[in-house]
Amino acid sequence: MAESFVLNTGARIPSIGLGTWQIQPGAVGDAIYAAVKAGYRHIDCASAYRNEKEEVGLALKKLFEDGVVAREDLFITSKLWPGNHAPEDVPEDIGATLEDLQLDYLDLYLIIAPIRFKKGTKMSPENLIPTDIPATWGAMEKLYDSGKARAIGVSNFSCKKLEDLLAVARVPPAVNQVECHPIWHQDKLRKLCQSRGVHLTAYSPLGSAGSPGYSGPSVLSNPIVISVAEKLQKTPAQVALRWGLQMGQSVIPKSANEARIKENFDIFDWSIPEDLMAKFSEIKQVKLLKAEFAVHPQSGYKTLEDFWDGEIAYELPENERTEHRDHSDFLRSFS
């Protein structure tokens, strides 16, 4: 299995990266340093995670100064703040991110979600406003032209939203970063991405159990994942990550534990046999991050099915389902 995938720009995105959302403040820098020393070459970050300046940027600077890696050895992803979707605000947004990260360019810059907040406000449902993705994308394309973003893409885009963007884009998105793991395969979206030359990156590839906004069954406790892990003498996390690679997507697990960071990277010199890969199709599919807060009179989305364009599945039948009305923990993680 290759340690990278080729994007439609010709650049290579590493097969595994370190996610930085929800790592405890004060631990991000050490996690990045440990990950890079262990072999990671992709760091996934965002201004919304509130750690780019104080932790990610300083960790990158130390790695470069210590001679651990050179800038060109790393693949750095960041994301547009959802309050800066106006075309005139996009260059300002990446400028602030580059300053915070102490970099001259990003390898990948994403629209974090098809969600927009009023400029200068907190990420709170009452501050949602409708998106204008074509206008925002036009500004993203200019960043690609300038070289400040060597690739541009999206995150949390359904098949319909991705097809709508591809229909108007001068520069097609290189990546769609979405929730994807053995409990949420994204088969329809993956096939579309593969057919249109858009790489799929999996966030929460281990399920992000306990993270704000996530609810549903555990990926790492799934009987099939555990059974495959036991047969291969690997950990459930390694099996979940290796499954992702064999499905053709890059993965960005999060951890601040150095031993787990190293363990998660140990997925290249073995594989899951075809007969065991087939077992994953038996797993009941459930979307763990539903983003209920996006359904609001001002957002343009009337239901979750509207937001995800029908690409959603629940753990419980509708008559037993309770939607999460309190979104404070999830939204607070970005403020």
**Envelope shape:** globular
Radius of gyration: 19 Å
Q: How many β-strand stretches?
A: 12
Quote the beta fraction.
Answer: 5-15%
In round numbers, the mean pLDDT is 93
Low-confidence stretches: 319-325
H/E topology pattern: EEEHEHEHEEEHEHEHEHHEHHHH
- Sheet with the most strands? 8 strands, parallel
- Kindly report the spatial arrangement of strands forming the biggest sheet: 3-4-5-6-9-10-11-12
Percentage of residues in helical conformation: 25-40%
Oligomer: single chain
Query: How many angstroms separate the termini?
Result: 38 Å
- Which structural class best describes the helix and strand composition? alpha/beta
Number of distinct helices? 12
Descriptive report:
With 335 residues, the chain is an alpha/beta fold. Helix content is 34%, strand content 13%. The chain is built from 12 helices and 12 strands. The strands form 3 sheets. The chain has an 8-stranded parallel β-sheet with strand order 3-4-5-6-9-10-11-12. Helix 1 (28-38) runs parallel beside helix 2 (52-65), helix 1 (28-38) runs parallel beside helix 9 and helix 7 packs across helix 8 (236-246). It is globular and about 55 Å long. Mean pLDDT is 93; it is low at 319-325.
Give the helix/strand layout.
Elements: E1 4-6, E2 12-14, E3 18-19, H1 28-38, E4 42-44, H2 52-65, E5 75-80, H3 90-101, E6 108-111, E7 116-117, E8 128-129, H4 133-146, E9 152-155, H5 159-168, E10 175-179, H6 187-196, E11 199-203, H7 223-232, H8 236-246, E12 250-252, H9 258-265, H10 274-277, H11 304-307, H12 328-332
Parallel strand pairs: 3-4, 4-5, 5-6, 6-9, 9-10, 10-11, 11-12
Antiparallel strand pairs: 1-2, 7-8
